[in-house]
Amino acid sequence: MNSKVEIHRLSSMKELHKMQEVEEAVWQMSPNPVHQTYTALNHGGVILGAFDGQEMVGFLYSFAGFDGSQAYLCSHMLGILPGYRKDGLGERMKLKQAEVAQELGYSMITWTFDPLESLNAYLNLHKLGATGAFYKKDHYGSMNDELNEGLPTDRIQIEWDIYMATPAPKITFDENKLMIDVTENGVPKANLDIFNPINDGWFVAVPDNFQSIKKKDINLAKEWRQKTREAFQLLFNNGFIANNFIRNHSKKHSYYYFTKK
């Protein structure tokens, strides 16, 4: 973990302009307008910056939400420069976000992520102990940034109870409950006919490095999206939630773990 990187709340227009530079570097697209982010942070939002000395190397942008009965924090963007992504900084920023959210009176944080991005899934479900609560097909429509271009923008919506969440417990993998498997050639293989809504504890395989697959073979990437979508929709529609994620580097893929709500 890179302990020299410090994290603190952003408060000035100057800092928000620095955030725009990081946002452009991460997504290669126009950043959020400063007048919008400045308004959000002054009305219940939480915006964090990660700094290596004077240089901002990451940010986390979240704003206030309300569903008619409960106020919550909607975590919209987490962006970290490439050289800082594998030292635990993302986890540190989410934990800092939870700390600040509690100080402001929030009890829940929600956000969406691409279910085929295994690093994000591992952080959200395994390390933070959050829950994958809903599946959103092509949630944002067509996007032209480097990470999303050419594919439907399917998302899993996370719900993180920041008072109750603990790291997910260790579970035992069961190949007899594997709804999406992977062939020796790295092609997703659907086993949806084994699904029984009465049973508990289902697994769905996803690749360890989806962006690499996308760059090499866009048709294979589309096949991963379509087949996992069918499995995820079947599970979520039958009252299951994603509550853990198992990494398996030796096979170059990992597994979602689903249980009943």
From TrEMBL:
Q: Quick check: keyword Transferase in the entry?
A: yes
Locate the N-acetyltransferase domain: which residues?
5-169
Query: Per the record, a Pfam family?
Result: Acetyltransf_1
> Can the keyword Transferase be found in this entry's annotation?
yes
* Molecular-function annotations in GO: acyltransferase activity, transferring groups other than amino-acyl groups
Keywords for the protein's UniProt record, in alphabetical order: Transferase
Q: Which domain of life is it from?
A: Bacteria
Task: Give the PANTHER family listed for this entry.
Answer: GCN5-RELATED N-ACETYLTRANSFERASE, N-ACETYLTRANSFERASE DOMAIN-CONTAINING PROTEIN
Q: What is this protein called?
A: Predicted acetyltransferase, GNAT superfamily
Organism this protein belongs to: Virgibacillus salinus
